[in-house]
Amino acid sequence: MSDDFVQVYEYHQYCPPGAQRVIASGFSPWIGEMDESTVFKYPLNPGGDRTRLELEHQILEIVGPHPRIIGLKRLSEAGLYLERTANGTLYSYLTDRTKSPPSIQQRLAWCREATEAVAHVHSKRVIHCDIQPTNLLLDENLHLKLSDFQGNVISEEGQVILEGGSAEPCRFFRPRPDPFDADFRTDLFALGCTIYFIMMGHCVFH
């Protein structure tokens, strides 16, 4: 019998003061609804590790305001306050069978906006490292905003000066010997896979 064992972590959903309800969970934080314009990302356990939230705050400050980037509001001791988008993720919108299929013009507009978001991020020497339809959010006018920044910041000399790792899922993953060795091509490959999803309604890789 193998001596290997699996360690199980159990997390209980909770709402911090001011949050109306939990609307999603990410890789490490809960995401709560504060009001119609604001969401709040906070640790899985009360008083838990804020490292990834602090990293996202740093990266969003470097990226700066842009129409295609989720709006940063502030970082507190409790967590990270961000802009809330009215229509959820691009993935949920495209896979919702109760909605009419978007027109070709709308799909092409989303492809352009996703490309604009990635181009802006790269102009700031930031690698997002998790481009996919679940991280593209839709505002009240169905414009795209890129969210969930956990990637790397690269110096002009090509050195990683702020590291958040590479976290893209297998269907958006650019093959490479070291899965944690991300570069700008990592985002471009994932963007191409995302554009395919936008146009076709399903992933290019299964």
From TrEMBL:
Sample GO molecular function, one term: ATP binding
**Membrane-spanning regions, if any?**
none
Outline the extent of the Protein kinase domain: 1-206
Task: Note the Pfam families from the entry.
Answer: Pkinase (PF00069)
Any coiled-coil regions, as ranges = none
PANTHER family per record: PROTEIN KINASE DOMAIN-CONTAINING PROTEIN, SERINE/THREONINE-PROTEIN KINASE NEK
What name does the UniProt record give this protein? Answer: Protein kinase domain-containing protein
